[in-house]
Amino acid sequence: MDGLLLSKGLFPEQFLRKTVDYILSQQLDDGLIPWFKGHKADPWDHTEAAMGLSIAGEFEAAEKAYQWLANNQLSDGSWYANYQDGNALYKEKRETNFIAYIATGVWHHYRISGNRDFLENMFPAVKNAMDLVVSMQAPTGEIYWAIEEDGQAFEDALITGCSSVYKSLECAIAIAEELDQDRQHYIDAYKKLGLALSEHPEYFDRTWESKERFSMDWFYPILAGAISGEAAKQRIAERWEIFVRDNMGCLCVSDEPWVTVAESCELTMALLAAGEHAKAVQVYSWLHQWRDHNDGAYWTGYQYKEKVIWPEEKTTWTAGAILLAADALTQHTPAWNIFQCSQLGRKETRDDALASEKSASLA
Q: Is the peptide bond before 311 cis (omega within 30 degrees of 0)?
């Protein structure tokens, strides 16, 4: 099944069962999901793996993973960048997209499980995280990428990180709306961030070298919903030949011969969001040659010049991404479209904010 072709209603549950079991086998007793046993964990990748468990109906394990986040949240609403053996490995900076991703994961799990008690119980942790992230927004709309050890913002921003935060803000608004909680400050931040991502590339990478060599900078604004419609299709076309390698997948960076499975899964979902369904099916079909058929896990990437798996790691977040892309292609769970369309039930959109900004500039 290396050339697995998926379509609506044909979720390959039996084929991916081992992939789910692999994530479960790596989860620690306290709920944390490391990259693989004996290695580090980080809040973003931990959540990505938990989302895979939700898709598989492993609700108890997924909720245990989210409870780990609630139990280990710092007093200001953040988490450290990495954890191992019950200890934080890196305390100098806390990354805002890592902090915000809890909102995406919690909303995703609620959409699938319908467990309102879970949503209510997790809301304080989501609120604390998102309040901190919103406080890190620049006057021009971008979210500063990290928080220094002393609590001050590291005043520059990443397109990929801010795109992830944009989707998390959307999910936080949806959660607050569902629970009838105040959400206006999230809506305001969401509008400003959407404008920065879609209209102002000059707000990013101000103090360091541009990150445009990373494929995620190319497709993440589409995956998150900040760029859509014809603009999304045009953005895909402009850099397709740079980042995509036929019969292999998506490059991590444009200047290295290295395709990575997780980025290819995320590109699959971005293609669906852009209305490029045939390309999405094709890209995903290439990825199963990087599967370890013994345990159902997926290797992180393939170095095609040397023709070697590299690194020799089977990460849980890669497995989570495989499950997310399969769900998006087959529309298997109620959360299949979390990265394909807005999660908002009200007309609080980036387009409304853009129209207001243009009207103001003409006045």
A: yes
- 342 three-state secondary structure: coil
Asked if 259 and 250 touch (Cβ cutoff 8 Å), the reply is yes
d(CA 236, CA 230): 10
For the beta carbon of residue 249, count every other beta carbon within 10 angstroms: 29
Distance of CA 218 to the CA centre of its chain: 14
Burial class (CB in 10 A: 0-12, 13-18, 19+), 304: middle
Strand-by-strand arrangement of the 146-148 sheet = 93-95, 146-148, 153-154
Q: Where are the domains of the chain?
A: 13-362
Question: DSSP secondary structure string, 308-327?
Answer: EESS----HHHHHHHHHHHH
Q: pLDDT truncated to tens, each residue of the chain (363 aa)?
A: 467 899 999 999 999 999 999 999 999 999 999 999 999 999 999 999 999 999 999 999 999 999 999 999 999 999 999 999 889 998 889 999 999 999 999 999 999 999 999 999 999 999 999 999 999 999 999 999 999 999 999 999 999 999 999 999 999 999 999 999 999 999 999 999 999 999 999 999 999 999 999 999 999 999 999 999 999 999 999 999 999 999 999 999 999 999 999 999 999 999 999 999 999 999 999 999 999 999 999 999 999 999 999 999 999 999 999 999 999 999 999 999 999 999 997 444 445 544 444 444 333
Helix (H, G, I), strand (E, B) or coil at 309: strand
Element (H, E) at 215: helix 215-223
Determine how β-strand 153-154 pairs with β-strand 146-148. Answer: antiparallel
Which architecture, in CATH terms, is 13-362? Answer: Alpha/alpha barrel (1.50)
DSSP state of 294: T
